Amino acid sequence: MSVGLLAIVDDVLSAALKASAKSAGVVIDDAAVTPQYVQGLSPARELPVVGRIALGSLFNKFVIITPLALLLTAFAPGVLPWLLLLGGTYLCFEGAEKVTEWFGAHHEAGSDETVAEPKLVFGAIRTDLILSTEIMLIALAGLDPDLGLWPTLGALIVIGLVMTGAVYGAVALLVKIDDIGLQMMKHSVRRTRRAGARIVRAMPTVFRVIGVVGTVAMLWVGGHLVIANLAETSWHAPYDLLHTIEHGIEAAGPVVTWIVDTAVSAVVGLLLGLVVVAVVLGIGRLRGRTH
Fold first, then answer.
1. How far apart are CA 134 and CA 69, in angstroms?
2. What percentage of the chain carries pLDDT values higher than 90?
3. Residue 132, Cβ neighbours under 10 Å: how many?
4. 90: which residues sit within 8 A by CB, 6+ positions away?
5. Tell me, what's the pLDDT at 163?
6. pLDDT tens track for 162-199
7. Do residues 46 and 65 lie in contact, with contact meaning Cβ atoms separated by under 8 Å?
C-alpha cells in the first residue's frame, strides 16, 4: 500500500516538474509584472499587500482556473482558446495603458492610499488571473493525458503552489531589499555600510526598470496569447507570419529567435492594446457627455 502511494507521489512530482519547465517563461513575466503594484506603498504595507496578492493568486489557481480548465478540457475544449484570447487582449490593454502613461496620458483620477490599496490589490489579482491561467493551462497541456484525473489534479496543485511561492517569494524579497540596505547602513563595518548605501541608492532605478520590464512582459505575453489563440479559433495569418519570421532567422540560433519572437509579440500586443485603449477612452468620453 505504502509502495503504491509512493509510486503515485513520484509520478505526480515527476509530471509536475516536466510541466513546470514549460511554464517558466510566464513565471518570469509574472515576477516582473507584480512588483510594480506595490510601488508607492509605505514600507509597513508592502509585505501585507504582497501576501494578499499571493492569497488571491492561490484562489485564482485552485478555485477558478484549475476546476474550470479540467471541466472545459473534458466537456468543451473549444472554449479555452477564446478565454485565452480575451485574457491576452486584456493584458495588451493594461500594457498599452501604462505605455501611454509614460508619455503623459492619465486615465484615472488620483486617490489617497486608503482608497487605492484595495483597488491596487484587486488590479494585481485580476492581472494574476490571466497570467496564472496561462501558467496552469500550459502546465495542463504538458501533462500526460493518460495520467488520470487525480494524479493530474495533484500535479497541478504542486505546480500552482511552487509557482506561487517562487513568484511572490521573489517579489517579497525584492520589495524589502531596500530595508535590508538600510539595516546594512547601520552596521559597524564600514564596507557593509557602503554596500547598504549603494543598495538603497540603486532601488529607485531598479523599480523603474522593473516597471518597464513588467509592462513589456504584459505586452509580450498578451500579444503571444492573442496570436496563438487567434490561430486556434479563427485567423491564422498573424501566427503564420510569426512562424515565417522565426523560420527565416532560425539559423541565427535559439536566443535570437526567442528575442525576435518576443519583440514581434510585444509589438502586436502594443498595437492591439492601443486600439483597445482608444476604444475605452472613447466610450468613457461618450458616457461623460451623456451624463
1. 11
2. 17
3. 30
4. 130, 222
5. 85
6. 888 888 888 888 888 888 888 899 888 889 999 999 98
7. no
The three-state DSSP-derived secondary structure of 106-174 is CCCCCCCHHHHHHHHHHHHHHHHHHHHHHHHHHHHHHCCHHHCHHHHHHHHHHHHHHHHHHHHHHHHHH
The letter for the amino acid at 171 is V
Question: Which one-letter amino acid corresponds to residue 175?
Answer: V
Note the pTM of the prediction, 2 decimals: 0.72
CB-based contact 96:274 (threshold 8 Å): yes
